[in-house]
## 1
Amino acid sequence: LVGRRRRRKEKMDFAAYENREGVRMSFNAWPCSRIEATRIVLPTGAVVTPGKSIPEMPVLPYEPVVCEGCQGVLNPHCMVDYARKSWRCCLCECMNNLPRNYHEVNPQNLPAELFPTYTTVEYTMTNKNVKAPCFMIVLDTACPREELQDAKDSIGQLLALLPEECYVGLITFGATVTVHELSGTSPLPRSYVLRGTKDVTQDKVKKLLGLELTAQEYATYDKNTGSQVANELSAKSRFLLPVSECEFVLSNILEDLQPDCFPREKGQRPYRATGAAIAVASGVLAEAHSAQGARVLVFTTGPCTVGPGTIVGRDADEDLRSHRDLDKNSAKHYKDATKFYNSMGIRLATSSHALDVFACSLDQVGLAEMKLAVDQTGGQVILAEQFGAENFRKSLRKMFARREDGALEMLFNGTFSAFCTPHVMVQGCIGPVSALAVKSKSISENEVGLGQTTSWRMCAFTPSTSIAVYYEIINQHSNPLPHGQPFYLQFCCRYKLSTGEIRLRCTTVARRWVESSASPEIIGGFDQEACAVLMARVATFRTENEEAFDLLRWLDRTLIRAGTKFGEYRKDEPDTFRLPPNCAIYPQFMFNLRRSPFLQTANNSPDETACYRLALGRETVLNCLLMIQPTLTMYSMNGPPQPTMLDVTSITPDTILLLDGYFFVVVHSGTTISQWRKANYQDLPDYAHFKRLLAEPVADAQQLAESRCPTPRLVECDQGGSQARFLLAKLNPSNTHQTQHQSGWEQQQNFGGGEIIFTDDISLSVFMQHLAKLAVAS
């Protein structure tokens, strides 16, 4: 197993590509034919971070030059004929004329997009309809007074974080759904109460809220200039207003808000119409802010119990569904709820709106059913025990953080497109996206993730959001490409800033063909970290329709075939099996992926599993690797902190371990350290070094937590304590209750009293022995 230092060393091989392009590819040299491509076993793909901050990237104040053949963008790899004022597209080989404003271009006077070092550039697009984003707050009032007060305080914090020009709206729900007017034109607050038992479409919302014009008013309505009546009736003058105009009214409404007054019988869950509230919010936004960038922020404290999207019945004796219920198809509400929320995701994505779920409850709230709606709209999920928790408040601040120019870091209304050379086809994409009906000659029949298109909608995303794109090499073996000839891939992402400005980021990637899958350039350009993430996303995506056991067998077979292909060995001699340095750690990633909560559902609720899988499908390569294989750092009085093996033998009485598992950060004190701390040795003047030892890992853990959204849980535990399970669950079980005398108890003494884990899981060494045996078999 590797520590943080060794992982950073591996990362540096491909850091230059990622820093310059925001792209990491599994293979940086591709075999030149379909047959040779199947022999490399592992996927050919790229993990793209379209919003990544690239300091040297130029922002150009004009629109791009686009190829008439493939719609690709002019880039440094295109051939330019300065005499004829034309250029050849490097993607489709189509000849195009340069626009008139480029006629002065020559080798000494190049535009920025033709500079060899500017393979990633951003263009400023014209926007005639500049509008700030909208945030529709959907608040659950079917909760105790204290929890509702914490939720209102969190919304107050949210309003303080938003720029003043952003639009906001408020919908509350319990047994019914209430849409609040924020205009403040009437002396008394006005609101519209809708039934929570039925789904409502955009047209129905428009009618119920009085947003329709009469026949006489419509006859005199001018689409260009509008009318006074239409403006007064519009949702933007009543339900959605800028923060600067409605903050006082909204604060008063929140202050007067009370828990849902609908009667609740003993032994019954409260009425909670979450699905109907989301449908109403979607209808209001589609009517007033379509295709302009908006988010539905759902603050909820429990599962939906009434109306569309019901997760569980009101009878408290009815248990919420578990993974066992889902496996047996015995969760009676699951299929209907999933179908409803999937349709809501389609409605929201059609208008480029995102669904965010802020669930603060000790029980499940139905995130497993909402998962696809959140994922395809690029929404965010924050799980906490209560709205007043510090972790939740920190996550909210991080989510609504601002850039140096005052704009929000989050990006809106994006469209991501992938272009490639004729010898390559796009299989699909996995990430927080929804597929667009864009047809192209580059679409592969072998679909991976969301396929049958080369463009996807990104309703909302952040600078750390990454997308996995999968490719298929289709060139025939009878028509080989020259060894070393370059090929090109291009990624274009059009998005909107919170200021209303529209940008188009264009990244062009150049790599080379090699004649055979056995060429040393194949393994030399293998990025095992990116490949592990690509494999993990495919496996996680397939969990929606396949059994976990079948996926584990698929991972094992793929790993064995990869070991046979790239390993160095003599047939039928497992002891001779070795992997090249560029893929030596890849089996460890697969070992930990098999044990991860993405594929193993034991000890996790369906909501927790959905949250983990959502994060894996959108984070950067390094963050995804932390989820799959955490890092472990050891602190002792014998020297500075140093990375150590992710193994149970790393637990010793006189050290402190820091485990970074992305979702939680664990500070684990050995037996001797905890005894000294409980004896208050750190308070004595002669033990100042011990006090520093205790403080250093906690400070490092807090620093790690500050950089992430959602904020990870910080766990401080002692060896032998109940909270130590967070650490033990991630360690390699090299010492278990089933190991033999020599490999168990004596090995424990040799390592200074290491722990023993009570588990039936195999260790990494046994896993590697089986891999070697099967990989070298004739």
## 2
Amino acid sequence: MRTLVIAIVVTAVYFLAEMVGAWTNTPPLSHRFSTSGGGRTPPERTVRGLASKDHDVPDRTLDDWRDFRAALVSGESGSGQSSNNSGRNDEQWAYETGDYVERGSIVLSVPSSNAYLDTIDSLNNICYRKAIVLVLDAGSRFIKGIVLNRPTNVGVREGFDGNSMELCRPGHGELVVELGSCIGDGCDLQTEEEVKSARWKVWFGGECGGLFSDDPQIICIHTIGTRLATSLSSEVLPGIYSTTFAGAESIVRAGEARQSDFWVFCGYVGWDVEIFHEEMFEEGLWHIVSADTSTVLEELNMLRCEEEDSKECDIDSDARNAGLHVYDMLAKRIGLDFPVESQSELVGGHSFGDLMLHEFATAALSFSEESNLAQPNLSKGIGYESSSALDYDPAVLMKRAQRCAAGTLLRASSGERSPYLFSDQGFHKSLLLLLRTNEEYTEGVILNLASSTVLELETGPESIEFPLRYGGSVNISTEDGDSDTVEESTLFLHSDIDLGKSGVGTQVGKSRFYLCNYDEVIQAVTSGVASQSFIAFEGISIWANDGDMSGVEEDVKNGFLETVPASREKLVWDKLLEQELLTEDNLAINAHLGRQAWSLASADSENDKAAKSNQYVFGTDVQTNTLADEASRRWMMTNILS
């Protein structure tokens, strides 16, 4: 604490001296110049310790106020946090600054010490796990930065105009392989001319204006200290500048740099200051670090791999590693310790969150045969956003009725990589029964997710407890839009054909399943029908329909869902009846039974790709299918059980 107070006092004194120097024309304590004017011309310079063979500029020592503050911190802490590891320059330093954020600060994302919260972050916000964020602007209300340790395996073509960004595989040499992907408003204006300049490799800078945004935002980081470069740039740290993609192209065209001299970031991270501090103090998710220029550049260079240096490349130059090696090095340098995860929290001896991060990087940042940069939106099934109703068209409804009509039983993808790993994990290896469809939406229920909720049926002097299942995230409403009671928001199904013929329930399409209401079940049970004949559900899943293909049909077309043959329906139902009321003790067995029912629904279960997966999470011996199963189990634990 004493160290932090000294650092803040020194900072205040330093800026006061700067102001006095400006008023009295006294030379300032540092050479920190504004690139937006102000009357002073920034001197040309290079960064200490970096080669300057491409630029005829003098090498000079930077008198940076951060160096002064770091020296005090080092002396006060006995060279603890700012001590050097082997192989580092003696003048390099990095240390934590408490809650003090400024332009040039490093923000480290730290996994929560609370296993429950860490699981939620790993399921819902994995792209920022163990991220190193360089702060570009720190105002009183908003903080903006870029993630430094998320390289991708794609590049951006020459001539990005801010309205569209055409992606290509970076490759080596002058020619690149086109990916055929373009994002932004100007994509329809692109020509088919040959694309050159393979060295514009792209980093994932954040989700705001990121790789999958309709309005991609490009920020280029560099160390070029020429007059042209500094006039087109803004200084982030001494000797480290940011510029636009157009500015970077201008510097390259002037012959003052190569494409490989730039780090091209697509997207950024943004925080409301109050939310940032809340996440930092209450949840412990962020640590603020001050580091010298050489340390920051060392981390960035480890994430880059040029053809001529390929034999010496760090593992983090592979996008699939998500920059974890660089992160661990910086965390160790500042003395940041992580809570030790219990064996029960590990998957195959590995951190669940780190495995999820590797898969995110493989799927979204690395273009290869086993991943696809243009990841689909995986959030269609669970949840529903209203869309404008289509004009009634009998031809459209007839086409739809021939494909995914009410009574269709579906199973989630059996591919080696689950499409529901990063969102809607409840759909992983799920079984879905479509209940009805119209011109606006398709309605269905998940069959194989047990829940911890019990429904009591009053059948006279005694009551019967019905374990409820999770059917989806959308509440069930009556025709007048109300669902005030559990009875009104509950669906019941049975699969007894003789019972259905006797008038209990309404057949769902042409399937063997019958849909019942609360009163029908009460009447059947009191007349002697076994209560175990029925399964109760709370909540439904809804897909919006658009044009001649419904949302659920689109998921089938994309391979997210598969149709289950009618001959498998009874096998599936019998296995579902083995599931029990969900508890912490039987969560694993309930999840296993649900997956067994899913396997039985396959027309060719012996040749199921998911069962014979040979895909592994990068750098581990954990199968991707095993990770998806674990993600689904944890989703049940955090969304249903709790």
